[in-house]
Design a protein that fits this description.
Layout: E1 21-24, H1 27-30, E2 39-40, E3 43-44, E4 56-62, E5 65-67, E6 73-75, E7 79-82, E8 103-104, E9 108-110, H2 125-136, E10 139-140, E11 148-149, H3 152-159, E12 161-162, H4 169-178, H5 180-202, E13 241-244, H6 247-251, E14 259-260, E15 263-264, H7 267-270, E16 276-282, E17 285-287, E18 294-296, E19 302-304, E20 330-332
Antiparallel strand pairs: 1-4, 1-9, 2-3, 4-7, 5-6, 6-12, 7-8, 10-11, 13-16, 13-20, 14-15, 16-19, 17-18
Helix pairs in contact: 4-5
Length: 356
């Protein structure tokens, strides 16, 4: 791999659009674009991406805009997302966050006909050396002798720059991903929430709209203290069909910070209230985006198929991260009679003991 490779020696930006067909270059082609840490412009090429080398995919969205763990909207250059290709966490301690992968355009080439693509070369010694370097670059030493991982999520701050609301050219790029209607609607919401933030700081309480909360006005009523929010136990398993409860039902389980046992219910999640979805899996461990540490989830955490952030209330971020759900926010749908009738279960079946 090259170290501090001059920009002019790298493949040029492609300016890809959603829907275009691309081929992921081989690792021998990608290797020269990477620095000693296996990264290009701060974004690592992770071992989990190797399985896609030499294959063709369609661009699902441009990754011009993204957010880090603190929710700050950031600008990224010459990157896209391909289909629904997600990290399987195999080289990152079994992380189950299933993050959408970032692909720098230098790692791709535009193709017109998938059938005309030449076969990928057979593995050789040079490929193995690059792979070993990529694996070694996934972790950093730690004084506690516990690995700290490097991945796309942890390296977003290094691979991007903060993006201000008033930089208008971003919305032109956003329209390529989402369409004009969503951008106009989202900007109206963003402007309203900016007003709410101003009003909270400067106006008397009697003049506030919904207590100056941001739209869509989520209001947890319970005190912020340990044990104040309830739990529900369903023991959901992958493949089961569930209904997401109404916004009002979920709000009743939240504290004033809109958390249930430390897990936030935010505006993006409220869009899915009332819909049905299948359980993708139970999330037991994820890499912390701030520290790189692998953390164990202490309470139940459910991921639902296809229920991801659409960026409506995060300035059109394209990361498509999965939402995490408490079981008390869901109800199982009984499919045993073949017609999908719902069988409501008790909203709360007692506090579940912590798992860790």
């Amino acid at each position: 791999m090259a170290v501090n490779q001059p920009l002019q020696s790298r493949p040029q930006a492609l300016g890809l659009r959603p829907g275009e067909l691309v081929r992921v270059r081989t690792i021998l082609e990608i290797g020269p674009t990477l620095d000693a840490q296996g990264s290009l412009d701060g974004m690592p090429f992770m071992p989990e991406m190797l399985q896609y080398c030499g294959r063709t995919f369609r661009v699902s969205r441009r990754a011009d805009k993204t957010c880090a763990g603190d929710g700050v909207v950031r600008r990224m250059h010459n990157a896209v997302h391909l289909g629904d290709l997600r990290c399987d966490g195999a080289s990152h301690g079994g992380c189950q966050a299933a993050c959408l992968l970032f692909w720098k355009e230098a790692w791709l080439e535009r193709v017109e006909d998938e059938a005309a693509m030449p076969p990928s070369p057979s593995p050789n010694g040079a490929e193995s050396t690059i792979t070993e370097t990529l694996v070694a670059a996934t972790t950093e030493s730690d004084t506690a002798n516990e690995p700290r991982y490097r991945c796309h999520a942890t390296e977003i701050p290094n691979a991007s720059t903060p993006l201000r609301f008033r930089e208008l050219d971003q919305y032109v790029r956003d329209a390529h991903n989402w369409g004009v209607t969503k951008i106009v609607r989202g900007l109206v919401v963003e402007l309203f929430n900016l007003w709410q933030s101003f009003a909270r700081r400067h106006l008397p309480r009697t003049l506030l709209i919904a207590d100056a909360r941001p739209y869509p006005f989520i209001r947890g009523p319970l005190p912020v203290r340990k044990g104040a929010t309830p739990s529900g136990r369903l023991d959901l398993q992958p493949g089961e069909l569930v209904r997401i409860k109404s916004k009002a039902e979920i709000e009743a389980t939240l504290d004033e910070a809109n958390n249930n046992r430390g897990l936030c219910f935010d505006g993006e999640m409220s869009r899915h209230c009332g819909r049905t979805a299948r359980v993708r899996g139970r999330v037991e461990r994820i890499v912390d985006e701030h520290t790189g540490e692998l953390i164990e989830m202490k309470s139940e955490c459910i991921m639902l198929e296809g229920v991801v952030c659409e960026g409506d209330y995060h300035r059109f971020c394209a990361r498509g991260i999965y939402a995490y759900w408490r079981e008390i926010w869901l109800e199982r749908i009984d499919e045993s009679n073949g017609n999908g009738n719902r069988r409501r279960l008790p909203a709360c079946m007692g506090e579940r003991p912590p798992s860790g």
